[in-house]
Design a protein that fits this description.
With about 230 residues, this protein is mainly α. It has one domain. Helix content is about 75%, strand content about 5%. The chain has 7 helices and 3 strands; from the N terminus they run H-H-E-E-E-H-H-H-H-H. It starts with a helix and ends with a helix.
Length: about 230
């Protein structure tokens, strides 16, 4: 019951958000923008306007695999986004270009998120292993119970980095979307009527990050309740 209370909300919201993203993308990927710009062209315009010719725009494989890599200063767009001239393609490309603008302006949450990526990758793998190893040690050996608790606690802290990462991601993604919306209008890439589609696209995408944060926090709390409940 505890797991259901903590895990189900994030899971349900995540599924709903993913459905909304795909629905919005499918809808607005069929609507060409009035200027006929591809996603890659729109992103390039934003980058050049803000004095970022050194940020490259490349194509990535897969569906909606779009992202900005601050380490190599590269904006990678999936084929549907980079080549497409739809409202959906320009929306996604502008959002990713927004991350490049954040990077150039030393946006603190982005810098923090980038800095903890190695620790998160390490913690997301090792954290659950340590937690369950310590938990099992407590269960099978009373004499080693204290050691098992500290091993499990260390795993909990490592896993907590994943939850922290999802929380830090929220302002990063919201800000990138807001930057995209401002630039699309200010640079006359899209008109006001087309911004309705942009708002739906980026609003649905934002929900996926909220869902990920809720799910990660819920799982962290579940592990914490198990560990400290058993200790009591």
């Amino acid at each position: 019951m505890l797991w259901l209370l903590l895990a189900i909300p994030g899971l349900i919201l995540g599924i709903w958000a993913q459905l909304r993203v795909r629905s919005a993308f499918n809808k607005y990927s069929r609507v060409p923008n009035s200027r006929g710009l591809s996603g890659a062209q729109a992103a390039r315009m934003m980058l050049d306007y803000h004095g970022l010719p050194d940020v490259s725009v490349e194509e990535s494989s897969g569906f909606l695999t779009d992202h900005y890599d601050p380490r190599s200063r590269t904006l990678r767009l999936s084929p549907d986004v980079g080549r497409g001239n739809s409202i959906a393609a320009v929306s996604v490309a502008a959002h990713e270009a927004g991350h490049a603008l954040q990077d150039s302006q030393h946006y603190a949450p982005l810098k923090l998120r980038t800095a903890i990526v190695p620790a998160v990758q390490f913690g997301s793998y090792l954290g659950p292993l340590l937690f369950f190893a310590g938990f099992m040690l407590q269960a099978i050996s009373r004499s080693a119970g204290e050691l098992g608790f500290y091993i499990a606690f260390g795993g909990l802290i490592l896993f907590g980095l994943t939850a922290l990462f999802t929380v830090i991601t929220l302002p990063v993604e919201f800000d990138a979307s807001n930057r995209a919306k401002r630039e699309l209008v200010a640079m006359n890439i899209l008109n006001q009527n087309e911004m309705v589609g942009v708002n739906q696209m980026l609003g649905a995408a934002a929900l996926t990050y909220v869902a990920a944060a809720i799910a990660a926090i819920g799982q962290f709390l579940y592990y914490a309740f198990i560990l400290f409940g058993r200790r009591r």
